[in-house]
Amino acid sequence: MNDTFMKEKPVLPLILFMAMPMVLSMLVNSLYNIIDSFFVAQISEEAMTALSLVYPVQNFINAVGIGFGVGINAVIAFYLGAGDNKKADQAATQGLVLAVIHGVVMTVCCITIMPAFLGMFTSSKTVIELGVHYSVIAFSFTLIIVVGVTFEKIFQAVGNMKTTMISLMCGCIINIVLDPVLIFGYGPFPEMGIEGAALATGIGQTLTLAIYLVVYFVRPIRVHIRRQYILLSKKMVIKLYSIGIPATLNLALPSLLISALNAILAAYSEVYILVLGIYYKLQTFIYLPANGIVQGMRPLIGYNYGAGENKRVSQIYKIVLCMSGIIMVLGTVICLLIPGQLMGLFPHTEATIQTGKTALRIIGAGFIVSAVSVTSSGALEGLGKGIPSLLISLCRYVVVIIPTAFLLSRFFGAVGVWNAFWITEAITAIISICVYYKAIAQSQLSQPTVK
User: Rounded to an integer, what distance in angstroms lies between the CA atom of residue 446 and that of residue 451?
Assistant: First the structure.
């Protein structure tokens, strides 16, 4: 396939070519999330609650890795579209160096803060102890996670989606296989409980990175990590962070949201915290495939924007919006039809299942309109417009939902928190359309130039 296929191939087949491998791998990844939680739930409700409380910090680590990776991806794609391969190599190299620094810092900080962090949301010594045991092992793989994500975004930037699909799927599959083995101690393996779940996750992430490295060295791609670019360039660092920081905040905001909602729900019962944690596990089955489409879209939009193909940028956005909408319709239908069966996968008490059924039916009402904000935010990141993308996410995860959830909880209790989700998605969808088209209008006034 020639190097300019991203601006020459028909738009719909191109999006399918780029996005479908990522959608498939994201579906496997979401299946892993559900299975991982399923096995942890078999230990005890305390273990599942601990996993729910650790999740925001895990999400923050992923947010930094993926968010900065989005910056690397967008900058590489832009320079490739503009025909500057040397700058693309520089972006990849310096992006990797910065990712390593991020990984080391987060490993130390996240392990250190966990006991105090868990103590903010529960007084149960058992839950805190389980959470600490899980997080120490899980967070020890932070460096591997962020380096793996960096290579994922480099491969995606050159249109090599097949390698990222295979790598992610292999990591997820080995994770799924090892979960019950390490948690319950089958065969020669010791029974590790919740620590086994963390170790299984880490081994899966290590395998994913190993596959990227093997492919990179055996079958070189258009972009290369080069020694001559290891020393950081101020201009390149600013360019990477100008996209990477807003993208990171976009992805980290759910951590802030979950912690804020946990604090609101803790005033009523820990059951609601458990239900919220289960919801966020289940919703990955909907949002990760949509995110797979968005991941396929980002390098296409970045490349075509860099090449001055504004009409194709518009076509790509509209088609991806429709594809995301279809996924969200399916998610809504599933949550309305079988909420009890979904919730029944995890907790052991009928009261928790009933509470979860109510939550899923109410929250699911906002899935369809959320396609607008998810697609718009991803498209803006692909265009290198991190601040407008961040504005959308701030509305979705902080500015609208947190005060709405707090106020509604004062009148309707925990059910008010569930209603805050669909109200927020409707408001944010309107804001997203306005922000996106304003950014597009501004970008078309002045074509990007390579600096």
Answer: 14
Contact 424, 366 (CB under 8 A): yes
Q: Would you call 447 helix, strand, or coil by DSSP?
A: coil
Which amino acid, 29?
N
Q: Where are the beta strands (DSSP E) in 290-329?
A: none
Could you tell me how far CA 86 lies from the centroid of its own chain?
A: 29
Contacts of residue 143, Cβ cutoff 8 Å, sequence gap at least 6:
100, 103, 104, 107
* String of DSSP letters for 360-410: HHHHGGGHHHHHHHHHHHHHHHHTT-HHHHHHHHHIIIIITHHHHHHHHHH
Which candidate, 127, 123, 115, places its Cα nearest to that of 48? Answer: 127
Contact present, 181 and 142 (Cβ < 8 Å): no
> Is the model's pTM score more than 0.90?
no
**pLDDT 10s digits, 205-262:** 999 999 999 999 998 888 999 999 999 899 999 999 988 888 888 778 887 898 899 8
CB-based burial, 367-387: b 16+ in 10 Å, e otherwise = bbbbbbbbbbbbbbbbbbbbe
C-alpha–C-alpha distance, residues 117 and 58, integer Å: 12
pLDDT at 30: 66
